[in-house]
Amino acid sequence: MSTNWTNILHNRFGFADAKIEAIALGEENNNYKVSHSQSQFILRVYSQEHSTTGKRHQTQIEQEHRFISHLADHGVPTPRPFKSQSGPTVFSGPDGRFFALFDFIYGSHPPIYTPEIATQTGHLLRATRNASQQFNEAPTRTWEGDTAEDYLAAYHSVSAKFSADQLSILAPLAETVKNSLGKIKLLDQGFIHGDIKLGNLLFAADEKLTALIDFDDFREAFYLEELARTLMHDLHSPKQNAIRAGAMPHMLNGYAINQHESACLKPLLQARFLYDVGSYIFNDLSQLVDELLQDRQITTNILS
Question: How far apart are CA 224 and CA 147, in angstroms?
Fold first, then answer.
């Protein structure tokens, strides 16, 4: 840690005795635990570019922070951005990267989906959606290549790599998604977290949800897409994927999904499934594709 964060935190936040330790060096951002007097915080140092949207801009991070604070005000458990002595929450560091402080919340990432964890995740998804519907701002950045149409196009671009047996299952699925695109476009839209998964959830030892973290993929999208993405995360893992772990009914119960939403969710799940198996076949993981096509939970909840 070459940057003198102790001095920077003293100048910006008035911390005279801060102790700093690295806790999570992520794929893009770096996170540190800051201990000051009787308080603890998370110092997040943002990468100079986001992997999807390109160069970061302060206005985008500031909007992300306003959204996080809005969710916290509406009962969604998430670490709030901490205001500096002068008021702002986002700053540019000496190396050109933006940084911010967040409240520290205890918890750990669960290794598998249990019925209780899935149910609470469903509650969280619904609470986030409800709060987002009251966040009335225009988006400050665009997010390309992440719609059902894009997923379908990605699948078709590699469809020649699938075996005849695999295509006998996937081709009809692609046709179903194509016929559902008009229905999907009518879904309600707003801001979503964009990456709700076990790795971005903190739970206490008694499986009580303590925090939703890492809003790096915060963006505008269909609200129901958030639920679909959460169900489809970590598809390669039988225990960390909600569907393969048999936790989908519990998550849907927690979300309190209605009949109309359920009908629209299916093609969103199918579109994402086609995208995922397309990426696996592109990377020569045909065996994983076969494993997924034979998975009982996948067959029941996506392929049927």
Answer: 12
In tens, the pLDDT along 162-211 reads 999 999 999 999 999 999 999 999 999 999 999 999 999 999 999 999 99
* H or E element, residue 212: strand 209-212
- Tell me the pairing of strands 189-192 and 30-36: unpaired
Short-list 192, 177, 252, 256, CA closest to 223: 192
Query: Which pair of structure tokens corresponds to residue 63?
Result: 């909007």
What is the pTM assigned to this prediction?
0.95
* Structure confidence by residue, pLDDT tens digits, 82-128: 999 889 999 998 888 999 999 999 999 999 999 999 999 999 999 99
Q: In this structure, are residues 68 and 80 in contact, taking their beta carbons and an 8 Å threshold? A: yes
> Which domains can be identified in the chain, with CATH numbers?
5-103 (3.30.200.20), 115-303 (3.90.1200.10)
Phi, psi of 95 (to 5 degrees): -95, 10
Beta strands in the chain (DSSP E): 19-25, 30-36, 39-45, 49-50, 54-55, 91-92, 98-103, 189-192, 201-203, 209-212, 219-222
